[in-house]
Design brief:
single chain, 116 residues, alpha+beta, 4-stranded mixed sheet, globular
Length: 116
């Protein structure tokens, strides 16, 4: 008996989006900060599942770094979702963690409203 098999379609992008590939270090951040930033932001990678690297832009910047009024901004374009999260913490890495958490909250809200 001859059984024809069709190639299985794979919907995974050829160049999947990752935080490392898509992250732009904006004003106030330096290349030597990247390892720490990637450790903090790794939790958002699941939200990029199924997107290719050319569909995603992530930018992280800090205004007035190392001052009491520093402000961290994380801007993410993930296909149709555009999210901006900000945090003002005296500790820079706590601020990066706060923008990550705020991004996750906003993304969940966006996904819930666009699921219908």
């Amino acid at each position: 008996m001859l059984v024809e098999t069709w190639p299985m379609t794979n919907h995974a992008p050829q160049d999947p989006a990752t935080v490392d590939k898509c992250l732009i270090l904006g004003h106030g951040f330096h290349q030597n900060d990247k390892e720490t930033i990637l450790e903090i932001l790794h939790r958002i990678e699941a939200r990029m599942n199924g997107l290719s690297a050319n569909q995603v832009t992530l930018e992280l910047l800090v205004k007035d770094r190392d001052h009491n009024d520093q402000k961290v901004t994380f801007e993410a374009d993930l296909g149709k979702a555009h999210i901006v999260a900000t945090a003002q913490d005296e500790d820079l890495w706590a601020a990066v963690a706060h923008v990550r958490d705020e991004f996750l909250r906003q993304y969940t809200d966006w996904k819930d409203t666009h699921r219908r």
